[in-house]
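PROTOCOL LOG
Step 1. Enter all chains and additional molecules of the complex.
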Amino acid sequence: MTSGALLGFADVAGKARVEDVADVVVIGSGAAGATVARVLSEAGVDVVVLEEGPHVPTASLRSDMYTSFKRLWRDMGFQVAQGRAVTPILQGSCVGGTTAINGAIIHRMPEPIHRHWREEHGIGPLLSYAELERIWGRLDDELSVAPAPDDVLGENSALMERATRRLGIEGHRIRRNVKDCQGSAHCNQGCPTARRQSMNVSYVPRAVGQGARVYADCVARRLLTRWGRAVGVEGRFIRREDGRVGPPMRVAARHAVVVAASAIQTPLFLIDNGVGRASRVVGRRLQAHPGTGVVGVFDQPVKMWFGATQGYESVHYWHERMKIETVSMPLEFGAARLPWIGPELVRSLATYGHLAIWGVQIRARAFGRVRRGFLGAKVIEYDLLEEDVRDLKLGVRRLAEMMFAAGAREVLPGVHGVPDRIRTIDELAPLDSLPDDPTFFHCIAAHLFGTARMGPDADRSVVGPHGEAHDVPGLYVADSSLFPTNLGVNPQHSICAVAWRIAEGIADRVAKT
Amino acid sequence: MAHLHMLSGPELRCLSAVFDAVLPSGASDAIRVGAGDVPLDRFVRDLLRRAPAHFRVGLRACIWLVNLAPPLVLGRWRTFVGLTRAERLDLLDRLGRSSTYVVREVPLFLKTVACLGFCGLPEVQAAVGIAPVDASPPEWARRGLPVAEERR
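Step 2. Run joint prediction.
Step 3. Record the structure below.
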């Protein structure tokens, strides 16, 4: 077995070029890429992983969001989609990908979604629900998935628990991939105690332990092909903190190249390399879960800085395309979310310990697009449909009702055209007469799907039922790009399970050759 | 090309004035410091060195829109920097309530940038009651004692 390693810019800076050879080259080290590396390396397959972002050791993490933005987040947290409204698109860009900055929420793909994929999009037996359930069980064990416990639930989540009981609606502790959570509420800054089992502390080191080489700070650019088959990847080391350019990288792949760089970066890599051109759907059909938040002001202390960042949720309205959850925001995010400026903003910051923030994410119908723009710049286009905006309105109303049910003295709806603060639900009436226009809301989108969709038909999909590109043998997509639609729940577990199955398929083929 | 990442003197003065209006000093007994008491100019320099191009363009556009808005919004033939503190606040508030999406996003965007720097300071977080906080300030504020102290 080759000895594994996690290397970054500093390890290769003096070299003229870096070359490696592996059975499989994986692009991306997030939920999909790290899972593929874990499965393949434990099946005895030699793996190299290329990760564009840096490796940030737990000991060097900080509490402030700006430092986290610089080191862990894509485009420093300023990646946006253009439409009538500008929508921040939140993604990690580091070893571990978005799993290193997300709220650790674990869900299995809802069965109705899987049924829809099977019946309408031709998802084959590789991804049968029974197979996915088998893998979810493994993932649950290996990533320490369990409901948020009492001692670190935090008051923000306890208040939502109270609201759901009073209103008689479904609610439950969020199942999280955290081992012995300390309740630091720092999920978005990178877990300071390495308790969250994000890929950078779970599957990446596990794969390295099995011989995988992980190259951080390495941007994959060119797909190498021979006789039309994927045989490797070329890229370059770039240190993000100062833009310094390092040596070129070339990795030859004996069996396969797996792209697992997210529903934004994967289609760009495919477009840049002319993959899936015939289907005319690469980068198109982008779907997301846009969400918005509502603030509640309570007489008692809430102290969002203690407890699980996201500890409680309700899927009571899932069939109406919405999911409600707690979001204990860092002060920097929460301050920007408050409706005031000047002395009133500063005074409200002083009472930050009495604020609760909850969010609604919707299973939007809208389709967007990822493409190259002027001078090769990344362009993300995404615009909510009128029906989606109506769902948002309903979601904001429900959040406000729940806040009052939990005992909020005031609610700050955060919607243009609605009072900054309301003391009764009746004061929310202007919400209903607003146009169905996304510019009245402040949304973010964190779950992205569909830009290199899977399907049996090469004219309408980019990859086949095993994740292999229709037009480039040996090239696989393993992330949520291949999901035909969005899910309505947080996708990490589904991404891991699908990637796992694709990796098992690759391992079988490697074993047969 | 490094200069393209930097703000000009007038741009920086305008941005400082916006930050000062958004997060003034002495507005609360709990949070005595304001944006003018901490080296947010260093924060902005650090931010612009690393931020993506669309962010830099957007920030500049917002600064100029705010700086040139007083005649149109308040009927005052001044730049934003030439306004009193109360007028600055009034102007930002009016922009934030505009019926035009792009216009009302301007003060929100500038406020978001201000809060990203200011609210990440351990002294501000401690004043809010957050515990524990980082033992040292972020890198941009390391030399960082309040600007007023450095000048003394």
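Step 4. Note key features.
Chain B touches chain A through 49 residues (CB under 8 Å).
Residues 2-151 of chain B form one domain.
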